[in-house]
Amino acid sequence: MNIDLFIYIGLFFSAIYTLILLSFVFGISSLTHLRDKYFKQISVIIAARNEEKHLPALLKAIAKQEYPTNSFQVIIVDDRSVDNTWQILSNEIKKYDWLQIFRVTEENPELVGKKGALKLGITKAKYEILAFTDADCLPGRKWLKEINALMTAETDFLCGYSPLIGTGRFVGLLKNLERSSIFAVIAGSFGLGWDITSVARNQVYRKSNFMKINGFAGIGKQRSGDDDLLLQKMSPVIRKRNFIFEPLASVESFDKPNMQEQIHLETRRSSKWKLYPLPIQLLTLFVLVFYLIIACAFILTIFGNLSWLQFIFLNLPKILGEFILLDVFLTRTGQLKQLIVFPIAEILYIPYYVYFGLRGTFGTYKWKK
Questions:
Q1: Measured between alpha carbons, how far is 62 from 52 in angstroms, rounded to an integer?
Q2: What is the pLDDT of residues 22-55, one digit of tens each?
Q3: Nearest-5° angle of CA 354, CA 191, CA 131?
Q4: Host H or E run for residue 95
């Protein structure tokens, strides 16, 4: 191997990677600060499959919203549950005037996963602004208030921060820092007008735009993708997009304690790469190749083919770019404490990204049927 050529290639990839990260920093700073003050009506739509243990807490969190109860409705669709989800919903609906419940008993082969339940909920929604979360989530008390403020007359899409809860402190910080890197990319890309990905746990769009693109048609047979694939499909009709940074509007999500389930979740997240538009495929492929270069550089350094100074010089722009992006994002979301584990995350993230990137592309996963 020509070591000098390898170093030049590595420095080139490192420079481009760092410029991409800094462009996302610029994108975050470019997001509009315009806010509406008048109350708009919002339909909250939630698909629930076997969520008997989470639904009461979810509904209590929604009941605590700092938003007029006559300005929103909540539609929960029981998505073929085999536990007591429907019984719990039938009891809970007596407590809340704003709650409506519906039931899906069979999966539509054209709308697999939770898309069938979401489509039913969207069809039943009375209002133009649609807010989405999951049944195992806890929206902050200012969630609807912040959605109302950011959904200005020209804004068509929002995504918001959603940290994990219910896991150990150290592991939780590591997992949330990894999630925060994704949310930072979402926020930064929104500021650049580029719809790369989104997260269904805290997502908002207009019903008219959903109908305009014929809903989930074309992506309905993919078991996931009601967030990122839908966003990419909806992109041509989106005028402006924004990100919900407000800490009290974040949507907490319970972590998956089962390791096997977590592996399948991460594999599922990575499996949609082949369905992404070409520019996004090229971006993620570039990152994968760059991380492989860094991994090879580490091996070469261990065996003495590269000096530690050369290895550090190759990594330094990457580390600084990632730190700056995360610092800017976490400052806005009030989660700077996550940076405590940044050095450890820098060590673990490359093998994590490479493993699940390859597993998601070439492997299989199991998920809710």
A1: 16
A2: 999 999 999 999 999 899 999 999 999 999 999 9
A3: 85
A4: none
pLDDT tens string 187-200? 999 999 999 999 99
Query: Counting beta carbons within 10 angstroms of the beta carbon of residue 225, is it exposed (0 to 12), middle (13 to 18) or buried (19 or more)?
Result: buried
Q: How much of the chain, in percent, has pLDDT values that exceed 90?
A: 83
Cβ atoms 48, 79 nearer than 8 A: yes
Q: Name every residue whose Cβ is closer than 8 Å to that of residue 60 and which is 6 or more positions away in sequence.
A: none
pLDDT in tens, 206-221: 999 999 999 999 999 9
Residue-level pLDDT at 356:
67
Query: DSSP labels for 57-78?
Result: HHHHHHHT-SS-GGGEEEEEEE
Interhelix angle for 3-30 vs 169-191, to 10°?
80
* Residues 345, 54: Cα–Cα separation, whole Å: 30
SS (H, E, C) 153-201: CCEEEEEECCCEECCCHHHHHHHHHHHHHHHHHHHHHHHCCCCCCCCHH
Distance set, CA 89 to CA 106, 146, 250 (Å): 18, 27, 24
CATH 3.90.550.10 maps onto the chain at 35-151+196-237
Alpha-carbon distance 182 to 198, whole Å? 9
Q: Which residues pair with 104 in a beta bridge?
A: 79
Six token digits for residue 62: 């929604």
Instruction: Write the CA distances from 300 to 293, 297, 310, 317, integer angstroms.
Output: 10, 5, 11, 19
Question: What does R_g of the chain's alpha carbons equal in angstroms?
Answer: 21
Average of per-residue pLDDT across 295-315: 94
As its CATH architecture, domain 35-151+196-237 has: Alpha-Beta Complex (3.90)
Residues in the chain: 369
